[in-house]
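quick one before i forget lol
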Amino acid sequence: MTILETRELKKIYGKGDAAVHALDGISLTVEKGEFVAVVGTSGSGKSTLLHMMGGLDVPSSGNVTVDGQPLEKMTADELTIFRRRNIGFVFQAYNLVPMLTVLENIILPVRLDGRKPQQDYLKEIVRVLGIDHLLDRLPNTLSGGQQQRVAIARAILTKPAVLLADEPTGNLDSRTSQDVLGLLKETQEQFHQTVVMITHNEEIAQLSDRILHLEDGRIISGQTTGGEHYGKG
């Protein structure tokens, strides 16, 4: 079942001779439960693509469909609600609210939606991610790896249709990166979560089921992988 699809996606910044084609006609599909890595150098368009897939920016042309819903047909308010319920984000900078505890950060999207978290699922998430003993702590008392674990928990608590991770290990050392990437893989396997990860690192990308190579705003190649854990033989 296709959970995410882009069709002839283009994003152009500027006009005339100064126009920059950040995305130049990208069409792709992601199946439910799949882990896809999009690999490219700085300026290749990979973060722009993630922002389009997540409804954080509007394409110049083309469209994005998530869980059967075309994003371009939604109003700004509708898109905000849809994004909160159906798209999880994990960013390099964690984006935790500093004055909220770990638990309050994790449940924030659910609370903003006027709902209560499913307690059994919440307990399972924090146990699997190894942060069940940190729930009363503030973000500034945590290591980078612990903060990223909190960000992952927050992203998957709503059981989103797709989890989008933008360079999720960019601020972490190699050992912590291995741990966080292993946890992303575990969320895919244990919680049947669809994951799309943006990275510049080919070795990290080997964790995924499929790698798409992006260059100058275009997908130039794709390959399936063994989905092996990063850093393990």
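fyi Residues 2-224 form a domain with the Rossmann fold fold (CATH 3.40.50.300).
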